[in-house]
What we know:
The chain has about 170 residues and is an all-alpha fold. It has one domain (about 35-160): Four Helix Bundle (Hemerythrin (Met), subunit A). The chain is about 90% helix and about 0% strand. It has 4 helices and no strands. Helix 1 packs antiparallel against helix 4 (about 125-170).
Amino acid sequence: MLRTWLPALLLGVLSSFVVSFFRKEADSVASVAAPKMVALSMANKSLSEAYIATLRAVLTVNPEERDALVRRVAEHSTQTTARLDAYGKLPRSEEEQTLFDQLLAARQSYFKARDEVLSALQNGQQQRAHELSQTDLQRKFSNYEQVGFEMLEAQSATLRAGTESMAKSASVL
């Protein structure tokens, strides 16, 4: 009787170990990469919303609507800052830190260009604001956005690598 139950018992213990191992691996990958993906995705979203609100402020002729759009720019910017702060508190690799530093530098450059556009609007220089938004602001936004996408891609690669590693481990077992 023992001979028939022993293999089943060993198989059960081994299966339990394997499931536990993969659960821990999945939790590890998800607990590190997923919050980064969420923070970066939401930061990119609020960045885009702020940029669109800035362009709309440049194009509108209604002063009350322009003021509301400028307030919306500030709100989205605050959201972006909060999301990047959340990302900044998470552990990062050296490569991720390099990209994050590039993102922060691109952000400062974008802020300077955006502030020039908004300042021109406040000073009644709508044509100047339009010109700046079509050249400097657009270029700096694109650079800022591109670095953000590179960071998201790096996180996606981390998730894929973790998944592939688990798949290789599973095939060995």
